[in-house]
Structure formats: structure tokens, C-alpha cells
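Re: the 90-residue chain
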Amino acid sequence: MKQAIHPKYFEDCQVSCACGNKFITGSTVEIIEVEVCSKCHPFFTGQLKFVDIKGRIDKFKEKVTQGVTYKAAKAKKVADKKAKKAADKN
């Protein structure tokens, strides 16, 4: 087995939830921050409540919007270069 290829393991990893719950576990990351834990998740609590965090769909829509603005900015930059070249030739 190769030596020194494994990440450092923290036996006292601190996990903190958005609800305020904190606990210690083992992980390769020293500090973990989560939005939902077993103390506040509806599946474990048995209470029906809506979690007010961004879902996968919202995150995807945000990425798509950022991608569109990036592409539009890049297209504008290319068009400006072409216009400048045309103006320099005249």
C-alpha cells in the first residue's frame, strides 16, 4: 500500500446545523456546516415543515442564468472587437 496518499482524518470534526444543533463526528474535513440535520429534518422529527433553503431546481436555475449572462457578455465582447477592427480598416 502506498504511504502518505490518504487525507488527514479528524476524529473530532465539528458539525454545525443552521438550526443551531452541533455535534462531533469523524471526517476528513475539520469543520462541516449543514442546512438540515436529524434534529430539524421533517423525516426524523415527524413534523411537517418547509425548509427555507434553496433546492436543487433553484440552484440549477441560478447556474443557468449565470451561464446565459456569461455567454451574452462574451458575445458582446467579440462583437465589439469585430466592430473595432472594421472601424480601424476604414
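Residues 24 and 86 are 64 Å apart (CA to CA).
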